[in-house]
Design a protein that fits this description.
The chain is mainly alpha-helical. The chain contains 5 helices and 2 strands.
Length: 79
Amino acid sequence: MIKIKIAEMLGKHKMSRKDLAEAIGIREATVGLLYKEEIKRLEVEWLDKLCKYFNCDLTDIIDYYPDSEIVKEQIKKSE
């Protein structure tokens, strides 16, 4: 599973989705989909712009969790 951490980055930098969209030149609706983690496709260009804007690594924006870790976490929550 891929986790997109745009909401975390916006909170950390105290900015709105609209501000981010204007700053990096992508549509506000796209930033909204990233924020809600509902985006179906990521453009390398967007990731590049985000990393440059936030002066961060890609791992600050997205994380990967193997499915086995997700299943283990869900089992822990249900116990």
